[in-house]
Amino acid sequence: QVQLVESGGGLVQPGGSLRLSCAAAGSIFWINAMGWYRQAPGKQRELVAGITRGGSTNYTDPVKGRFTISRDNAKNTVYLQMNNLTPEDTAVYLCNADIQAKQGRYPEVWGQGTRVTVSS
User: Fold this and answer.
1) Half-sphere exposure of 109 (CA within 13 A, CB side)
2) Average pLDDT over residues 91-104
3) What is the spatial order of strands in the sheet that 3-7 belongs to?
4) Rounded-to-integer distance, Cα 120 and Cα 14, Å
């Protein structure tokens, strides 16, 4: 069994910053792609940023230049640094990973989500 545990969400004022973390746990051999998604009330879940095992990244247009995804393969952890936050960034942020574990491959592992609220 593998799992992802997110942390770092909270309430922040517009223009502020937050750093999200997502740590994978279990009998993990390696992790392929990792990503951060978000789901705002009444909206579909969307990919915010993704990162390959080698470090190649991609971002959705609204967050380019403000958010940075990174990972530490030794710690099986992915991060999302969010700067210059706006109320439109308010959502539950979920971590996703493609994990090769002792028990086999888990291509779509999801965390439980961490809530980010941007409000004055």
Assistant:
1) 24
2) 97
3) 3-7, 18-25, 77-82, 67-72
4) 6
